[in-house]
Amino acid sequence: MNRTQEVAQLRIAYQRELAGGTDRFHAPRRTTCPWCDSSRLRTRLRTVDLLQHKPGTFVIDQCRDCSHSFQNPRLTPEGLDFYYRDFYDGLGAELTEWVFNGGGNRKRYLASARALLPFGTPRRWLDVGTGHGHFPQSAKTVHPATVFDGLDISEGAEEAERQGRIDEAHRGLLTDLAPKLEGRYDAVSMFHYLEHTIDPRAELTAARTVLAPGGHLIIEVPDPECVSSGILGRWWMPYFQPQHLHLIPLANLRRELESLGYTVVAVERHEPHIPFDLTGAAVLALAHALPPADDPWYPAPPSGLQRKARAALFWSSVPLLAGVYGAEQLLAPLLRRTRLSNAYRVVARYGTAA
Question: Against a cut of 0.85, is the pTM above it?
Answer without folding.
Answer: yes
